[in-house]
Structure formats: structure tokens, C-alpha cells
Amino acid sequence: MKFKILSLSLIAAAFVGCSKDKLEPIPQTALSDAVAFSDSSRCVQQVNGVYSALKAGNMYAGRYQVYQDVRGEEFINRTNNAVTAWLTWQFNLTASANEVQNFWSAAYTCINRTNVVIAGIEGSPISATLKRNLIAEAKVVRASAYFMLLQLYARPFTDGNGARPGVILRLTPATSGGDNNRARATVAEVYAQIIKDLNEAEADLPLTYGNAERNVVRAHRNTAIALKTRVYLNMGQFNNVITEGNKMVPNAAPWQASSGVSNALNPSVANVYANYTNSEMILSMPFTALDPPGGQNGLGHYYNPAPNGGAEFSLNLDAGGIFANADWRSTDARRGFLQVASGHTWLRKWPNPANAADWSPVIRYAEVMLNLSEALARNAAGTTVDARALAILNAIRKRSDATIPDFAPATKDELVNLILTERRIELLGEGFRTSDIIRTGSSFPAKGVVGAVAPSANQYIWPISIAELLVNTLCAQNPGY
């Protein structure tokens, strides 16, 4: 039998190139089972291939984060290029649109690769400890891919407590054609699988790899915990966010995890993106000039002005965008990521040409802090302002603007709104705006020539890919498409 990777509806999956030190899979596209998992070295390389699928162009190389962000109000499209998220930006997608089909295919290629690798490692002759570690890494990747799918193709968990149609759950490897007919699981069922994978991963992942780079490009125990704070926040399960957040975030400064990798809030926000192996980066996808994200994929391409980028999306300077928000003061160091060029203002967190030497962040310690802060704030009784939630918020803001007085909200709702605004500033361009809008049941605000999109509108979520519907008679399309 040959070891092959299949996408959901296409019997192929090209390995994404990586440099030897940065998640390089075995380069062959077909290996015998006896060879692919024959020893520890090959098993590690196959897990590297799982990460390679996660960092594919349509995934965490940049397109996923771009789709998430440009649906919101922070950016204005400048190219009208249907290949680079113009249709997503203007809420004019169909089931046959490039991004709808390509992201669905990339996500299920990634999921199937994890399924193949998990099954292969389970039967491999390696040590029990390494086997648990590697399978746990694959589960983190599978959980991440399913979470990404839910953010675009399904209604939020908070709409009906997860009872709405989610996506297709595939947990066993597909190594040949057929077996396409599978109904969509509910949103709750998919989230339950995500949490199951992350819980099992937390128990089996190593505490650290003992190397700064590996601690950023490979999942460790704190990675699984951090991702659970994100998942539970999107489910509206604030008690669970607090339980997970407490494992990594102390009650007061210094803001640093007390066990496992010493993930911490970097004292300088500029340094977070200058050195990608810093302790704030919990998981990041590595790229270099020899291992780029590919044409029109990287974050730098979308948000940088020419000639370093494609000048695809500039900041929205109108009143609705975060740029004009009075809470984002001129003394804030995060304003240093902005550049005025060609009459527009651009986000330059990733300043290198085509993102050639910039890594793509998946999760940072600052996000974990904000996830916990919001959960604490929302969980407070009555109108009470939770003191710890406020302290975390002030720590994030004052890291970038030491001159600002401490926030002093009078009510719980005021604190929550301050945290939501802080997320828009701190996580700008990193792929959070869609999730933050839909999990709170909000409308997508108007921007430029595009009107607001209410939660009841068909375009509030993406259609299911036409490529899936053509081969899977049990998969139902989202209403209105």
C-alpha cells in the first residue's frame, strides 16, 4: 500500500515546501506505509508535513487571516482583484468563488493529512512517549483546521448553542477515492471534536522543546491551552476560558506563564514582530526567502504598499475603522506599524517583500491575556467591573502606550467594550475581526462602498464549496446560496 494524502474531493495534495530547519516534510508524494513511519526520524518529518499543510497559502501563510479581517471594517480594498479577496471584502461570494473552493480544499487536505499521520504513527515502532508527543502535535493542527472552517462556513456557536449545521467531520484517513458522501455535523459536534483534540494534546505534548525556535514552530503544552482559550471564547463559554487562561496568565505582573514554555508579554510590541522566536509568540508559521508563502499569499503582500507589497488593502480612515477611533492614541507604539504611501495608510507589521522573511503568527500570549480578560469581564456578577480583567487590559494597553492613564470603566459593559476595542488594535491584521463580530452576534459594519451585513443576511457566512457539493450528495448548502 502507498502512503498518500488526499483532499476531501480531489485525489491529490501537493506538499508545501519548507526549509530543512523549518517544518520540512519528506519530499516524496507517495511512500510505502513501511517506510513512511518506519523510525522516529521519518515520523517527525511526517508531522512536519502536517504543519506544512497548515502553513499552506490558503491557510496560515496569510489568506485565512486576510479573509477573516477584510470582511470587517478595518480595511479598504484597492485593487478589485477577485484573486486576492475582493469578493470576500465586498460580501459577494458564490459557491464557485476561488476563495470558497480553495480554502475548503486546503483545510480538508490538511485534516486528511493529520488523519493519515495519526494512523501511521499509531502503528509505528517508535517509543510510546514520542508516539504520544507526535500524535498530539497532529491533533493541534487538526483542531486548528476545523476551527478555521467553522469561522467562515458555519453560524457561530452562540447562535442556537451549536445546533446549526457546521462542517463535515472526517477523523479517519482517506487514502483512495470514494467515501465522499458525508453530512455536515452540527457546530456543537465540531467544537466538541476540537476541544477533545486539544484536551488530549495538552495531556500528551511536551512541556518544551528546549529550543527557542522549536518552541514557536511546534506545538507544546501551552499551545494547546492557549488555543483552548480562543475556542472557548468563540463558544461563549467564559468559565472554561477562565479555567484555561488561569493555567498561563498570573493574577498580576509579571505577565508570564509559570510552567512549560515561558510564554510572556514582550515588553516591546515592536520586538514581537522583529524577532519571531520571542516568548510572546506561542505558535507561528515560519517563512524565509527560500521558503516563501507563495505569490499573493503572504500578509505582507496584502497590507504593504508597493513596491514591497501588492497594495491590496489599506486602512479604513473613516469614522467606523479602528484607525480613527479615539481610543487608539497617537502616542501608542502600535501606530508605528502604519505607513502613509500613495495617499493611503498601510499596515506594516510584516514589512518584507512578499512576506519573504516574515513569519505568520497563529497565536500570541497577548491574545491569551485578552481572551482571559474578556471572559473575566463578562463573567462578573451584575454590573461589577472585574479587577483582574481590568488589570490585564491595562497591561496590554500600557505595553504600547505608557503615557495613557489606567482605564477606569464604571460598568461591566463599559469594560467589555474597552476590551473589544483593544482586540481591534492589538490583533489588527492577524485574522480576528470576523470571529469577534460573529461570536458577539454583531453586524459587519459598513465600509467604503459596502453596506452593513446583518446576522440574518445570507452573506454573513460563506457558502459551502461547489466542489464539495458536486461529489457529496449528503452535504447541504448554506441557506440563500
Report on the architecture of this protein:
The protein has one domain: Serine Threonine Protein Phosphatase 5, Tetratricopeptide repeat, CATH 1.25.40. The protein has helices at residues 33-36, 40-54, 63-70, 86-89, 98-122, 128-153, 187-204, 214-217, 221-235, 238-245, 269-272, 299-303, 365-379, 387-400, 412-426, 433-439, 466-471, and strands at 2-3, 31-32, 75-77, 281-285, 313-315, 338-341, 344-347, 360-364. The strands form 4 sheets. Strands 1-2 form a two-stranded antiparallel ribbon. Strands 3-5 form a two-stranded antiparallel ribbon. The protein has a two-stranded antiparallel sheet with strand order 4-8. The longest helix is centred in the first third of the chain and has 26 residues, at 128-153. It is mostly helical. Residues 1-21 and 24-29 have low confidence and may be disordered.
Separation of termini?
40 Å
Order of helices and strands: EEHHHEHHHHHHHHEHEEEEHHHHH
The largest sheet has its strands arranged as 1-2
Q: Given this structure, which CATH class is correct? A: Mainly Alpha
Total number of strands: 8
CATH fold-type name:
Serine Threonine Protein Phosphatase 5, Tetratricopeptide repeat
**CATH architecture heading:** Alpha Horseshoe
Mean pLDDT: 93
Number of helical segments with 4 or more residues: 17
Strand content: 5-15%
Number of domains: 1
The main pleated sheet reads as: 2 strands, antiparallel
- Radius of gyration, Cα only, in angstroms? 21 Å
Structural class: mainly alpha
Helical content stands at 40-55%
From the spread of the alpha carbons, the general shape counts as globular
Contiguous uncertain segments of 5+ residues: 1-21, 24-29
